[in-house]
Design brief:
- By secondary structure, this protein is an alpha/beta fold.
- It has a 5-stranded mixed sheet.
- Helix 1 packs across helix 3, helix 2 packs across helix 4 and helix 4 crosses helix 5.
- The longest helix has 23 residues.
């Protein structure tokens, strides 16, 4: 019975994975828009239980000689609490407060995550080159803060420019000048 259940789960995962195989950006993004979220809220956003359950199921399948890692979405935390002034990569005090919750959650889960990518974003008012550089600097600012305050390592940064606007109705909105956290766990 247990083997039969495992095989059914494997087939379902393969079918589900094939449906999303072309989507490299498959993510379960959670948004927290409170200035001082609890560490538990950040933890649940970065490491959702549903994805943890899928990872456990995949581990069980791999023990049976099957592969299913490609069907598991990444988790990410998006927020408008770590935003920046136009043309700036300087963290605000509010942003630092939010990052303290992120840093504490990452410290608590230090044995769970392998790496963290911080994606910087820009609004659509500048040129592509300026926005790319600025969004990279924003991600680097968040990383520098987490490294300095929490001693975290294995953090990568990437500038996404204005390719993933949060407020598509207002491309110049400050809501688009933000960072997003994507753990690999």
């Amino acid at each position: 019975m247990n083997k039969r259940l495992l095989i059914v789960a494997a087939v379902a995962s393969v079918v589900w994975g094939a449906a999303f195989a072309g989507d490299e950006g498959l993510r379960k993004t959670t948004t927290i828009d409170k200035p001082r979220p609890s560490v538990e809220e950040v933890d649940a956003a970065l490491f959702p239980k549903q994805i943890g359950d899928l990872k456990a199921e995949c581990a069980q399948m791999e023990k049976a000689g099957l592969r299913c890692q490609s069907v598991i979405p990444k988790s990410s935390l998006d927020t408008i609490q770590v935003t920046f002034d136009r043309g700036s990569a300087v963290l605000t005090e509010e942003g630092k407060g939010f990052l303290r919750s992120v840093g504490t959650a990452l410290q608590r889960k230090s044995g769970v995550w392998k790496s963290l990518t911080i994606e910087g974003h820009a609004d659509a008012t500048g040129s592509e080159a300026v926005n790319r550089r600025l969004s990279q600097s924003r991600a680097d600012s968040a990383k520098s803060f987490l490294v300095a305050e929490f001693g975290l390592s294995n953090i990568e940064t990437v500038g996404r420019s204005s390719e993933k606007l949060r407020d598509t109705d207002n491309p110049a909105s400050g809501l688009n000048r933000r960072v997003e956290f994507v753990p690999d766990w």
